[in-house]
Design a protein that fits this description.
- The protein is α+β, with helices and mostly antiparallel strands.
- Helix content is about 30%, strand content about 25%.
- It has one domain.
- The strands form four sheets. A five-stranded antiparallel β-sheet has the order 7-8-9-11-10, with helices on one face.
- The chain is globular, with a radius of gyration of 19 Å.
Length: about 300
């Protein structure tokens, strides 16, 4: 059995709960789900059946494959407080795990299946850079960074963050970062799909990563989250989608659609808090209409501009 222990810290309020919905709780199941989701949206496998088979081999399933990886969370200090989930308007406070909370993630590799432990460790790191845990995790809540000692060992600065993410996205697809056949490429400060794969990418009938870019450093977490919440509201006024009220940044009326712009916050090795904006393919009713929203990213670019406007 191999084991890795990673010291972690919550860097934006985490609104996560278990069976007692009024009590904040760190849930390991959400962490596992985030890793699976990150693998899914990063994979270039077109056929859904093939994707699920590969995913089950890596993570296990309820019927045929035992998971080769075990994840344990050891709490050190997880302070709680009641805070509003929405910051752009009056909202009822709910209990959350505060930023600054500390814990350990223990990774254990049990079976001679799946990938090696480095693969799972890097997938965990990638998942926590691109996403968060709990409610409104697509709006910057529940973000996690690594304790300073581990940050120093990994040493990701603003300049090296996107190159590392690009490399890991390609590793998930069995490729080298600089290979001519690489799925993802880094150009002009953002990650995108290699132009040669555009035709293949059009065949995907599920959310897949299409772009990743960074925002300006965050000096005050709650001020930034308030900007995110306000932009989530204002985008409905400033942008008129082609398909009625179907917004790529999320909507509730006429069905529910989770935002295809994932907003997270990560921390670099030199202590900067950096927003990470991840664009996934915005496809609705995949079994029926297979409509793709915001093909040219106008809506999502507008929302990012609303968030970043006026920030120094």
């Amino acid at each position: 059995m191999e084991k890795r222990v990673i010291d972690c810290e919550i860097i934006t309020p985490m609104f996560s709960s278990g069976s007692m919905s009024t009590e904040a709780e760190f849930r390991v199941s959400e962490l596992k789900a985030l890793m699976r989701y990150t693998y899914r949206i990063a994979s270039n496998i077109v056929q859904t059946k093939h994707l699920y088979q590969t995913e089950n081999q890596l993570f296990g399933d309820a019927e045929h494959h035992a998971s080769p990886i075990r994840i344990q969370v050891v709490e050190k200090n997880l302070p709680k407080r009641r805070e509003p989930l929405l910051l752009h308007k009056p909202a009822r406070p709910v209990e959350c795990l505060l930023d600054g909370g500390a814990f350990e993630i223990v990774l254990r590799k049990f079976l001679d299946k799946g990938e090696n432990l480095d693969f799972y460790q890097n997938l965990l790191i990638l998942s926590l850079i691109l996403g968060g845990l709990g409610k409104r995790s697509r709006r910057g809540r529940g973000c996690i960074a690594f304790a300073h000692a581990y940050e120093h060992a990994l040493y990701l600065t603003r300049e090296t963050l996107l190159p590392w993410v690009t490399e890991q996205l390609n590793v998930l697809n069995g490729q080298l970062a600089n290979s001519e056949n690489a799925t993802y490429m880094l150009n002009d400060g953002e990650i995108s799909i290699h132009p040669k794969l555009k035709t293949i990418w059009d065949q995907h009938k599920r959310p897949v990563i299409e772009r990743v870019c960074l925002g300006k450093p965050v000096s005050n977490v709650r001020s930034y989250l308030k900007k995110v919440d306000q932009a989530s509201h204002d985008i409905k006024k400033y942008y008129k989608p082609v398909n009625r009220n179907f917004f790529a940044t999320g909507y509730i009326g006429g069905g529910r659609f989770a935002s295809s712009l994932l907003i997270s916050v990560t921390r670099t090795s030199n202590g900067q808090l950096i927003p990470v904006y991840t664009f996934v393919k915005a496809i609705i009713d995949p079994k029926k209409q297979e409509q793709v929203l915001d093909i040219n990213y106008e809506e999502r670019n507008k929302m990012i501009s609303l968030i970043e406007k006026g920030r120094i």
